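Thread title: Can someone regenerate the structure for this chain?

I was given the following input by a collaborator and told the matching structure tokens would be attached. They weren't. Posting the sequence so someone can regenerate them.
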Amino acid sequence: MAKTKKGNKKTHIAIVVDRSGSMSSIRKSTLDGLNETINGIIQDGDLGGETDVTVVLFDHEIEAVLENVPSNMMTKFNEEDYVLRGTTALYTAYRDWE
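Best answer:
Regenerated them for you:
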């Protein structure tokens, strides 16, 4: 965590979520868990200073759907935001993203 000019801590939270087709049996619980995490960040994100959030979805590709969003600007994800597709190839996607 880096210090800001005000002396408060600056925190960055990265949330990485699998959106491959193999997630179909747990799609709803994954979406509920993501939104529960986001709710916690919204409620407590700035208690110790500034907090920014990045949300990354991956399958055979990696997509940062939110990047460096202030915690107080976060919104929940819905069914249209979390569309399952593709195959799980995290190591390949990560290597290609670098």
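The beta strands are 2-3, 9-18, 49-58, 62-70.
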